[in-house]
Amino acid sequence: MSEADPQANGLATAPRAHVRRRRSLSFVWVVPLAAALIGVWLVYKAVSEKGPEITITFKSAEGLEAGKTKVRYKDVDIGQVTAIELSQDLKGVLVRAALARDAERLISENTRFWVVRARVSASAIYGLGTVFSGAYIDLDPGPPGRPARHFTGLEQPPVVTTGMPGRHFILESERRESIEIGCPVYFRQIRVGEVVSYQLSEDGAKIVSKIFVHDPYHRFVRTNSRFWSAGGLDVRIDSAGIRVRTESLVSLLAGGIAFDAFAEHGEDAGEAREEAVFRLYANADAAREREYDERNFFVLLFDESVRGLSRGAPLEFRGLQVGKVIDIKTELDLASNRVRIPVVVALEPERITLRERPQGKTTREEVLASLVERGLRAQLRTASLLTGQLYVALDFFPKAPPARISPKGPYGHPEFPTTPTPFEEIGAKLNRLIDHLDRLPFEEIGRDLRATVQGARRVADSPALVDALQSLNAALKEVRELVHELRTGAAPELKATLEEARRSLAAAQSTLAADSPLQSRLNAALDELAAAARALRTLADYLERHPEAAVFGKGNEK
């Protein structure tokens, strides 16, 4: 017991440890807690800033890459391509993109998407910056519309005009001419806009194009403005020479459209409204040509070939256009085996001004019928010897057979009388001549001619002809000798005789001269003869009054 006490006393005197419990968190937990808070904030921010997810269908994914290709608007990143996959029908690719929350206001059913990559066209060069940075997707918000998440991408970059001051106009034409998206629009050779789009109409009858004219040039588009295709060269050959005109070098290469207002095309009713519809003419001359509302349709029947005559060819009256050709048909009469070419023309009477109407003719139809009675006819003529183009000419032919305008026929229009061309008349005369030649008995004439030649040959070979030729040769020899004798013998004597006659004439001329003595005596004798004649005339008059004087003498008459 005594040994235990010291141990107990030692334990009682030993120091004791005091344990304190800490109630605050350890610093070790700060880092994961902060990371968790940041993660929650990032998740919240990603969810709150997450924009719409869209799907764009393209024909090809050239230049696109998931996780790298950006979606931009005005060169500002607003999204990124997240996935690219093939479409179900394998005709294209589906490009999925996640956009920023702020980009939601740009997305509607009218939004257009396209891939911006390096492109070279006739009118411009696009996307050179993508050669180094890579392709990206651009968009045009367009006008406001309903929300949409699926889109069909454009294969060609459009002309973006959203938010730009100016106006859009619609052009309609039968052909595309030189229209390309982005090609320029000119006003008096100043570029004022560009072509936004073009497409074929639903019925396929025309091309509908949309152009945009910038402010302030849009106010020059008037209600009576005319638009025409300005691409290429406008070459004109006339009396002034050869003229070449183009709007600009760009329009020469890439095409273009020009417009202007002409006073002769109607009254100007002010500026054209937004998306006003105009007709697009093929060239400047067609745009300047005045259009007439009134038309009279006629059918012209030609027996000759109309090669070189086309629809739209002019109908002219002495060099001035008064209409055009509308249609060309073919008519075959199996009974008579005759072919005629019906040509439908439209006469525009407003082009012709009538100063004075014929007596009793009140309507234009009556006036035209009166002109036909005077010899007005339609005739085919050559417009160009180089191209062989034909046109229809109206002119007066006084010697033409009588004709009149017949009523409406099988083509629904009156028939206008025609006259053949001079070449056709010459051909008809040649045909008649050939017919007459065909009727000649050439075989009989040949037999008679052969008989005549044989008779002439027999005569030529006969001895009588040889004797006659020998006699003729002898006679010619005698004539030659006679001429020689006359030349050597009679010629000197004849010369002396002529010399004597010349001297006699000279003497007679000197004798009969006005100052010669013979002439003086002859004049005196003539004077005395005239005095005697007067005395006899006086005596005859006296005896006629006093016949008794012949018996009793003068002064003793009773």
- Give the termini separation: 259 Å
Largest sheet: 9 strands, mixed
Computed CA radius of gyration, to the nearest angstrom:
58 Å
Helix content: 25-40%
Helix count?
A: 11
Tally of structural domains:
4
Find the structural class using helix and strand composition.
alpha+beta
Q: Percent of residues in beta strands? A: 25-35%
User: Based on DSSP secondary structure assignment, what is the total number of beta strands?
Assistant: 27
Average pLDDT, rounded to a whole number, is 79
Shape: elongated
Outline the low-pLDDT stretches: none
Describe the structure concisely for a colleague.
The chain is α+β, with helices and mostly antiparallel strands. 31% of the residues lie in helices and 28% in strands. β22 (331-333) and β23 (338-347) form a beta hairpin.
